[in-house]
Each structure stands twice: as C-alpha cells, then as structure tokens.
C-alpha cells in the first residue's frame, strides 16, 4: 500500500485507515493502478533490476490491488500476495486471474505463509507504517531462502509533518540482516509517480 495524503498534498500522520473502503479508488493513483503506460513501464523496468533473472518465488507484502504482483507475474515469477484488506485481495485476485499467483488476507508483518520460503520479499510503502519495523524485517528475512533478497520501496513524505523511514535508518536496521545492500533513489524519476516529486523516495535491495 502507499502513503495517505491530505488534500494539500502533505503526507498524513499514521493512523487507522479503512483499506477495505479505499480499495475501490486505490488504483486511481498513478503509482497504484499503473494504468498509464509510461508509469507501468517505469515500474516494470525497476522490477527487472530488483528481481532475479530466472523464475522466482516472490512474496508481495501489503500487495494492495496487486499491481506490482502483476508486473512480477508478467516477468515469469510466481507470486504470493498478502494484504490485510479483504477487498484489496479480492481485486488483486481478479487482476491476476489465470496467472501463477495466490493472494491471502493477512498481516504483512506476520504473513500467513505456513513456513514457506521465498526468493524475494517485496514490500512497497508498508514498513514505515508498521509498529515495529525492526521486528518485521527480522521475520521477513527468516522467510527468505539462502541468497534471497528483500526489495523495500520506502521514503519520507511531507514537509510540515513528514512521515516515513529515512534511508539511513533503514540501512541501520538491515545491517545485521543482510550481506549486501544496494540503494536506488527514486524521487527524480517522475515516470514512477506520474508527476514530479520533491520528497525522499528510494528502494533498497538487500541480499541475505
């Protein structure tokens, strides 16, 4: 899922969000629905650089309506998506009907995957909103196969009351968990967001 925004473009402070109610309009945001061909192509290009070359098992946590899951499936990967919102999961299932993908209702911090291991744990705009990011990262690392990778898309949004997780904090949390980390700064690539942005947006690929 992504950050909540106020009417003046400021990122809203963390708080309860009725994601089931948001599901009907979630894809209206350019970087959620990926309906614009340029936005879709930009995310597909990034995923190719973040995900393994060959077919892999991808766990997409906080998958929302499944837009990134669909891109991963189109690139030949098998996807398991998890979201707390049943309505989001319903839309993801419809979006990937006929694809090699499974979607589950559950908590991204403790996904209901019954001890399965994955090649990649993919998480976009979720970690910052969790009550204990360090604990979530430790659990996600335990879900990876040897030489697996965490792909974490995060940022810091807003200027008056910024919310998010800065790059240096995330790298500190990952230090004891990953053998190698790579950062990609995403703010300057307006294609990803469907508009120019001036806040901090980035991805970290951490190999364990």
TrEMBL record:
InterPro entries: Methyltransf_11, SAM-dependent_MTases_sf
Keywords from the UniProt entry: Methyltransferase, S-adenosyl-L-methionine, Transferase
Domain Methyltransferase type: from-to ranges: 59-152
Any one Gene Ontology molecular-function term assigned to this protein's record: S-adenosylmethionine-dependent methyltransferase activity
Pfam families (UniProt xref): Methyltransf_11
One of the GO BP terms on file: methylation
PANTHER family: METHYLTRANSFERASE (PTHR43464), UBIQUINONE BIOSYNTHESIS O-METHYLTRANSFERASE, MITOCHONDRIAL (PTHR43464:SF19)
Record protein name field: Methyltransferase domain-containing protein
Organism the protein comes from: Streptomyces mexicanus
């Amino acid at each position: 899922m992504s950050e909540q925004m106020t009417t003046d473009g400021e990122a809203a402070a963390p708080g309860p969000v009725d994601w089931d109610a948001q599901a009907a309009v979630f894809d209206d945001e350019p970087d959620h629905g990926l309906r614009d061909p340029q936005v879709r192509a930009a995310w597909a290009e990034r995923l190719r650089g973040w995900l393994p070359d060959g077919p892999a098992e991808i766990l997409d946590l906080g998958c929302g309506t499944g837009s990134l899951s669909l891109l991963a499936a189109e690139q030949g990967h098998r996807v398991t998506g998890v979201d707390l919102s049943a309505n989001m999961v319903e839309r993801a299932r419809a979006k990937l009907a006929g694809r090699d993908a499974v979607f589950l209702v559950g908590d991204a911090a403790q996904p209901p995957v019954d001890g399965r291991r994955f090649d990649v744990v993919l998480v976009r705009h979720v970690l910052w909103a969790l009550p204990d990011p360090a604990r979530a990262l430790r659990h996600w690392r335990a879900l990876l196969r040897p030489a697996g990778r965490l792909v974490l898309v995060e940022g810091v949004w807003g200027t008056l009351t910024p919310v998010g997780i800065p790059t240096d904090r995330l790298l500190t949390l990952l230090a004891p968990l990953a053998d190698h980390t790579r950062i990609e700064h995403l703010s300057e690539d307006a294609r990803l967001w469907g508009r120019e942005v001036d806040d901090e947006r980035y991805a970290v690929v951490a190999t364990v």
